[in-house]
Amino acid sequence: LDRLHLSNLIHIASSDEYGMEASINSKNHNGYPYNSYAFSKLLYSNLFYMQFYKSKTNLIILKLFLVYGPGQKFNRLIPIIIKSIINKNKIKTTKGLQNRDFCYIDDVTNAIIKCININKKFSSPLIMDIGSGKSIQISSVISKIFKEFKIKQSKVISKNFNKLERKDLVADISKAKKYLNWKPEVKFINGLKKTINYYINNI
Known about the structure:
This protein is of the alpha/beta class. The chain has helices spanning 36-52, 77-86, 105-116, 138-148, 174-180, 188-202, and strands at residues 8-14, 58-64, 66-68, 91-93, 99-100, 102-104, 126-130, 136-137, 156-158.
């Protein structure tokens, strides 16, 4: 990293790295991931973490929670629901009792830009959660999408909840507020409306 003469190395990590930890703690770069994706992300986080002490480059690890917005691939919850409604397909989901933290893409990119512009040296890697700091139940997300389409919720087929998946997941954004002077600006319902409008015009 020294050879690259970088001021800040920003690693885009995932909240999935926390896995089944009892509580979210962004001071800890380790976790207990429950799937291969989360495990691979954690490996990279640890690799960069070790490399930090061999270089003079700032290491900033951003653990992103559930990012959403226009253009997201159809392997994520919100695009799946929207596409299914537009195409009048059946929707397979759990009862939606999980609580998740959704953060609009514009807020995420603003956090990354602020990281790029950091001009001070940190004595240890800076690990921060990037999310809304608020949780919303998945069932509520689905209901809000149906409501935006002005149709009754139907054709939802319930499937079993993955016991290896944690039920509650919400970001602690206190460090992002402190070190980046950052906070999410887009309310969930406003971001959801923008997302729905995008897919209506692009499917």
